[in-house]
Amino acid sequence: MEAPALEDRLPWYRGVTPYQWLVLALASAGWIFDVYEGQIFNLTRNRLLEEVLRENSESSVKFAGDLALAFFLVGGTLGGIAFGSLADRWGRRPTMVVTILAYSIFSGLTYFAHSLWQVVGLRFLVALGVGGEWAVAAALVAEVFPQRARAYASGIFHASSVLGTWLAALAGIAAGANWRLAYLLGLLPALLVLWIRSGMKEPEVWVQSSRQGASIAAGSLRELLFDRRWRLRAILGMLLAAVGLGSFWGVTIAGQDLAREMLLREGKTKSVAESRSQFAYGIVETIGGGMGLLAFGPLCVRLGRRRAFLLMQLAAAAFVPVTCVAPASYEELLRFLPVFGFLTLGMHAGFAIYFPELFPTHLRATGAAFCFNGGRLVAAPMLVFSGWLKSLLAPGDVRAAVSWLGLIYLAGAVVVLFLPETKDQPLPE
């Protein structure tokens, strides 16, 4: 057997240049605040909606929350696909600047919202930038890092989302009833634009691709969906993302609901249950989720992309019902939630690793955006279905519903079987 090359025996980070680390830092910073803008609504929406609706009816608040989330999903899908296509045409740097400015400015304007439709409209506009930023940053990291370091760097990039969730949890807890301050903090990422404009340049692979042919329709959805080389990859990638995102809204976020209902059964007040459940989900569960995200890159390198997805999805399908039925107290639930987060969230790092590897340079951001953000829209019915299932099985007790919803991971395992393996392969051109 031929001995591995010297560079293959070295740690993956050896030989990574300072500029490549800078790109990873910039992409991760944008993604951290991207996640913050999405999570802050999940963590503050009850207080926010009670104030703008001027009532605390549980049904009214739930309907308004679902409405805002629906507009967020549509905005994320439209923004993601549009900005992904523009990133393949304009370049990565200017598109990232626009997406970060969009989500930070409109998040900050939520401070001034006083009606439901103002909130809903601003969530839609925030989502335009949120959806676009991920695809641009994922393509950028994949193109800048060398092949042997690509999966690790892309995994770290996506794992930085944990910092966004923690930041949102801490901001939500600190703001308390004054939820407006948590949205004002969303203006901070606008400062990243100065750093990006001064420190980032276009990836060489994109520059070469843009020079090689005006005949190439960069960012073309038509080519993505009608060229047989890319069509099946785009559709299956979108379905894989739909499973991950649908399970995130139906299962992963339900860690907060499991904690809240456990605390209420133990006799805690609604206010205490709200605060401690935010801690349980936003901090404790997310610690495990972050470890899962960081672990997924090495798993992809060792097992291959497809096997890593299969392993994580099958393990999640098995462990979700255990988390729902085994804990007998809030303290016991806190011991289960890190593993719950590890298995249900960890596979999301695979989207940043895998999707850019499926498409050529002139379609890379477009394809990644179509998979990830198209998956948002396909997964949207999961919100309606999970709400219906929770009300049907046992209103006020989500444990049975979340256990059944965990079966969606089996669908994800089936989708992976039809996708190609990209381990140890160069990016397609």
Question: Mean pLDDT across all residues, rounded?
Answer: 88
Which CATH C-level class is it? Answer: Mainly Alpha
Task: List the total number of helices.
Answer: 21
Low-confidence stretches: none
What CATH architecture label applies? Up-down Bundle
The helical percent reads over 70%
At the fourth level of CATH, the homologous superfamily is MFS general substrate transporter like domains
Mind telling me the C-alpha Rg? 21 Å
Order of helices and strands: HHHHHHHHHHHHHHHHHHHHH
How would you characterize the largest beta sheet? Answer: none
Strand percentage, roughly? under 5%
Q: Structural class, from helix and strand content?
A: mainly alpha
Note the overall shape. Answer: globular
- Number of E-type strands: 0
- Whole-number total of structural domains: 1
| CATH topology (level 3) name | Growth Hormone, Chain: A
Span between termini: 31 Å
